[in-house]
Design a protein that fits this description.
Order of helices and strands: EHHEHEHHEHEHEEEHEEHEHEHEHHH
Strand content: 15-25%
Shape: globular
């Protein structure tokens, strides 16, 4: 087959697709990517034929804010994801599909314009979960914007369509996926570009706490500083991945805190005793895959729902907004490091994830789906 993957130019939108894309390539299929200009060279460097498709979220946000102002955030979001972003994807992807004629299109769930372009071209299309689905109350508000993208044929889910790939284990299932007729379960496999682990990780004699706010929320310096101050009081080593942020912004850090820009997170997580993070789905699922308890400091998007889900499952704890202080981080982290019940739940979820279908197994099922 020739499979085209479509995604926004952002790490949290690209990385969840990579295990399946690599498995498809390893199975002998031709894999092509469509993404925003900023990520074209990045994906090409990973060995995939890649084409410029769509706009970045930031570009769409700027345009939507120009139209509606900063005091109407819901209208800004609806305009971004219901108009600007999908129309940009449709405009770029339509001629590309005519040229490449892929056998299957897979789009990450926010890139709904790819579903429109694929359906109009008569090509089978699947959504790929990268986070929690849109809450029902927001979906009801968004319905008038999203429905026209389906050309009068209303699917089971206005973002995910009638067929999708689901990464959530049973204990943390997303209720928003209920009712989608064709749903392929896929084991979430932590993935990152190759990197080098800090050498000091091998000689430790204390627990390791991994702290990150990802590649979007990294600018929340006050949150990161509060977490560093709280964690540094514990008898642990703290590895901080600050992302693309300014290293000088954090100032001096205690001796047991080690700050770096990026680390190969998939290799760090199995070594960690606790992960403190923003609640992005990639880090949530990666930590669960490693069986590690989590302290979540949500900053936006579906991170709050992820935090609530982890707390409900007793796989972690959360601090939100003004709750995020050095004292609170210290107390919650100490509790999580010592809480046997939370560690047992995290281990149970690790086994659940390990039992889910592998990317290679799902590729075989996608072959059947495309053939039908």
């Amino acid at each position: 087959m020739r499979i085209l993957f479509s995604c926004r130019p952002a790490y949290g939108h690209l990385y969840p697709l990579m295990p399946l894309a690599i498995a498809a390539r390893d199975a002998g299929h031709e894999v092509v990517f469509g993404t925003g200009e900023a990520f074209v060279d990045k994906v090409r460097a990973l060995g995939f034929d890649t084409h410029k498709v769509g706009e970045s979220i930031q570009t769409a946000s700027d345009e939507a804010t120009r139209r509606h102002g900063e005091d109407n955030p819901i209208e800004v979001v609806l305009t971004m994801f219901g108009e600007i972003l999908p129309q940009a994807t449709i405009a770029d992807l339509t001629p590309l599909l005519a040229e490449l004629r892929p056998d299957l299109v897979v789009y990450e769930m926010s890139d709904i314009g790819a579903a429109t372009a694929a359906r109009r071209a008569g090509i089978p299309v699947l959504s790929h979960v990268i986070g929690r689905s849109m809450p029902a109350e927001l979906m009801a508000i968004a319905a008038d914007r999203l429905a026209p993208l389906w050309d009068g044929t209303t699917p089971a889910n206005l973002m995910l369509g009638d067929a999708g790939i689901d990464l959530w284990p049973d204990s943390l299932r997303d209720p928003g996926l209920a009712g989608i007729p064709t749903l392929f379960r896929l084991r979430p496999v932590p993935w990152n570009e190759p990197g080098t682990l800090p050498s000091w990780l091998d000689g430790r004699d204390r627990p390791l706490v991994y702290l990150t706010l990802g590649t979007v929320a990294f600018g929340a310096v006050d949150v990161l500083r509060a977490a560093i101050d709280g964690l540094s009081r514990l008898p642990v080593d703290v590895l901080v991945a600050r992302g693309p942020g300014d290293p000088a912004a954090l100032g001096e850090v205690p001796a047991n805190v080690h700050v770096t820009g990026f680390v190969p997170q998939a290799e760090v997580l199995p070594r960690a005793d606790l992960v403190v993070h923003h609640g992005g789905t990639g880090t949530v699922l990666g930590s669960l895959s490693a069986g590690v308890p989590q302290l979540v400091l949500p900053q936006g998007a579906d991170q709050f729902v992820n935090a609530e889900s982890l707390e409900a499952a007793n796989a972690g704890r959360a601090l939100v907004g003004d709750q995020i202080t050095a004292d609170a981080v210290e107390e919650r982290a100490k509790t999580l490091l010592d809480d046997r019940r939370v560690r047992e739940v995290a281990a149970k979820l690790r086994h659940e994830i390990a039992a889910m279908p592998s990317p290679a197994e799902v590729v075989r099922r996608l072959e059947e789906f495309a053939a039908r």
